[in-house]
Fold DUF971 domain-containing protein.
Amino acid sequence: MSEEKKAWPTEIRLSKDRRILTVSFDNGEAHELSAEYLRVCSPSAEVQGHSPSQRKTVTGKRGVTIIEIEPVGNYAVKLHFDDLHNSGIYSWDYFLKLGHEREVLWGGYLKELEEKGLSRDR
């Protein structure tokens, strides 16, 4: 049995307003991911914790922007946000997950905010 070829990024483009990151892959997929979505779903331990019970609900990031994209080896990038968060390492597989599961992840985030009485603005 042959191992399935993993999608490889062909382009990572940040919009002029620094609010949308487009990641294109060699399998023809392209995902436009908002800076807010990337920030609240950061793979960092600061956000995700070390177990599901430690995961943080990030608020007030509606206007966040990406100020730098730093390569990490040949498998990921580190995104630097204007709120000074920069500890998440976004692998190519994680970008695909965020693209494929956007409706579920974003919907869950919005529901969590509502249940906790929190806001995207503060």
